[in-house]
Amino acid sequence: MMGLLMVGSIVNYLTRSTLAVAAPSVLKDLDISTQEYSWILSGFQLAIMLQPLCGYVMDTVGLKFGFAIFAIAWSFICMAHGLAGSWQTLFGLRALLGFAEGSANPAGMKATAEWFPATERGLAGGFFNMGASLGSMVAAPLVAWAILTHSWQFAFVLTGAIGLAWAALWLAFYQSPSKHRALSAMERDYIVSGQEAHLAGQGRPSIGVIVSQRNFWGIAIPRFLADPTWGTLTFWLPLYLTTVRGFDLKQIAMFAWLPFLAADLGCLFGGTISITLQKYGGVGLINARRSAFTAGALMMTGVAFVGTVENPYVAVALLSLAGFAHQTLSVTVITMASDLFKRSEVATVAGMAGTCGNAGVLIFSLLLGALVTRVGYTPFFIGLAALDLLGAVILWTVVRERQRETIAAVA
Question: What's 2-410's CATH class?
Answer without folding.
Answer: mainly alpha
